[in-house]
Specification:
Blueprint lengths: L25 H13 L6 E4 L6 H10 L8 E5 L5 H9 E2 L11 E2 L1 H4 L4 E5 L6 H13 L1 E3 L6 E3 L3 E6 L3 H6 L5 H7 L2 E4 L10 H16 L8 H9 L5 H15 L14 H6 L27 H14 L10 H5 L3 H11 L25
Parallel strand pairs: 1-8, 1-9, 2-5, 5-8
Antiparallel strand pairs: 3-4, 6-7
Helix pairs in contact: 8-10
Length: 366
Amino acid sequence: MATTASNASPDESGGRRFEQIIGRSPALEDVLEKVERVAPTGSTVLIEGETGTGKELIARAVHNLSPRCGRPFVKVNCAAIPLDLLESEFFGHEKGAFTGAIAQRIGRFETANHGTLFLDEVGDIPSALQQKLLRVLQEREFERLGSSRTQSVDVRIVAATNRNLIELVAEKQFRDDLYYRLNVFPIAMPPLRERKEDIPALVTHFVNIFSRRMGTSIETVPPETMEAFVSYAWPGNIRELQNLVERAVILSNDGVLPNPLPVPSPARVRSGNVREPAFGIADVELADPQAPAAPAPSDAAKRREIEEALRASRGRVSGADGAARVLGVAPSTLESRIQRLGIDKHTFRRRTQDRPYSPLGHPAFP
């Protein structure tokens, strides 16, 4: 899965700093700035975000911009490995350590020595293993299963999760000391609905990939089709966009990319509970990923929408009735925008008689 950047600038060696990261939106630029700051330090990084937002690409960027570039980058998907095998995956085992251990195995920590270990879906690590993981993070040493010999290791940890670790800590499903050890430098990945200005470049990027792969030529994208892509909510984020572009290339005729999104039913259109425009037929030149992004809504428009949501939530940002839920953004994202725009959220806590907030008819929140 790729998310990429035509905003990548050459580094001193003539390469590109973010070769596979596409986009120029302020939300993505903020992430890349954080990557550039933390990559050289060797500090532990925790990447949080919804499924399909490109967390692994950011982890690789942290590794590639660090002094460990050229050393191993080892990935462990903590949710995909059976629980009874996860400890062996992490630390390895000796021959005969358990039934089926017919040979010695080197674990991922040992494989990643002097490099970077990417713990994907770290929130799914079982509690029984969290203590052992904490020890190796703190002491930089471990033992293989079935061995009493202590191994030293020099590994940088980059972790990622699509779960709310704070909630897991509160529910006693995740150790608080492990959370604080991982959360040295957090990076929040924006969902695709918060970086709509990047969608045309991403569509073009995936169209080029799949048209080459399938031996077909896509010359034009109907404006209605591109508008459908831009307006859609993308619950599956970039991964969903990638898959739907692949579908559209398969369905294309005469070099024209069709709209693969479902056409809304008349009932949904009347109710206003719809984001997908209808199928388009006119043609437009294929979007240039090097072209400037469309302007985002003004700060004044953002401020009005945030204030409306705060008024409706009586100044609450998070929670089921919070402004972040109304606007469809992460509470941390909304807090940073409130601070940047100089909004005093406390003034809304006294206003209990304001009208309910409705997002219909308001400009899309970037």
